[in-house]
């Protein structure tokens, strides 16, 4: 498999900078650039605007989309396991029998939660009606490591999408293949444009640009204490 485009609002990215993704067998080139981060964040911001298809979507339909994504991953499990093994180096048996089933279960778990985020009424003094309501926070920047590429992606995407947020995810530059393939499945099953944006870039450039971006409302990072400051 060879990717020459990232998943930024289902559009092409800037092609002026490249980095190598080293497989066990051969090298392939992927692209990253500062402008791609701005483009991805803007796409996520537009998808989160009031009145957008994503903001108007019923919570139950968000859950349905996550179930469809789980179905698509389950359908392509053998291919995804092969990609995970090529990119990450773990045995195919582990990718296929351990990682892929857990990825599917993770997305199904959060699909079930999509319409069950409940507020509460609070009996306060006086002639008042007091209640709480959970709202999506907005654009979520997410950075994941190389050791469990598919699972890390599922653990980050599942809760963010179930609760109605949009995502800009920076995957590990060493292991971008399965994340990019899952991004193509996200498009296939019908998520609106801009809801999920996947970047494969270096932490010091793409990751740092996401973390300091003023239009990113929340950051989720999984990685070492050595990598985090970069």
Automatic annotation (TrEMBL):
Family annotation (Gene3D superfamilies): Aldehyde Dehydrogenase, Chain A, domain 1
InterPro entries: Ald_DH/histidinol_DH (IPR016161), Ald_DH_N (IPR016162), Aldehyde_DH_dom (IPR015590)
Highest taxon listed in the record's lineage: Eukaryota
Keyword field contains Oxidoreductase: yes
Keywords attached to this entry: NAD, Oxidoreductase
Residue span(s) of domain Aldehyde dehydrogenase: 34-228
Entry keyword Oxidoreductase: yes
GO MF terms held by the record: aldehyde dehydrogenase (NAD+) activity
Enzyme Commission number(s) of this protein: 1.2.1.3
Family statement drawn from the similarity comment of this UniProt entry: Belongs to the aldehyde dehydrogenase family.
Protein name according to UniProt: aldehyde dehydrogenase (NAD(+))
């Amino acid at each position: 498999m060879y990717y020459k485009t990232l998943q930024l609002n289902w559009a092409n990215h800037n092609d002026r900078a490249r980095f190598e993704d080293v497989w066990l067998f051969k090298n392939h080139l992927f692209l990253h650039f500062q402008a791609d981060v701005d483009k991805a964040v803007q796409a996520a911001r537009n998808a989160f605007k009031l009145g957008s298809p994503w903001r108007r979507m019923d919570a139950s339909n968000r859950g349905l989309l996550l179930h469809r994504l789980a179905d698509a991953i389950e359908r392509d499990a053998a291919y995804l396991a092969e990609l995970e093994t090529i990119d990450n180096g773990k045995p195919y048996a582990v990718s296929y029998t351990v990682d892929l089933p857990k990825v599917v279960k993770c997305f199904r778990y959060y699909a079930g939660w999509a319409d069950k985020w409940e507020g509460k009424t609070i009996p306060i003094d006086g002639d008042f009606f007091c209640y709480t309501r959970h709202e999506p926070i907005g654009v979520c920047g997410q950075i994941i490591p190389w050791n469990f590429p598919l699972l890390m992606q599922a653990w980050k995407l599942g809760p963010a999408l179930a609760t109605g947020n949009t995502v800009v995810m920076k995957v590990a530059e060493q292991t971008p293949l399965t994340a990019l393939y899952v991004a193509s499945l996200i498009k296939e099953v019908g998520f609106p444009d801009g809801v999920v944006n996947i970047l494969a870039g270096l932490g010091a450039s793409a990751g740092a640009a996401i973390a300091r971006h003023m239009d990113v409302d929340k950051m989720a990072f999984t990685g070492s204490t050595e990598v985090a400051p970069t």
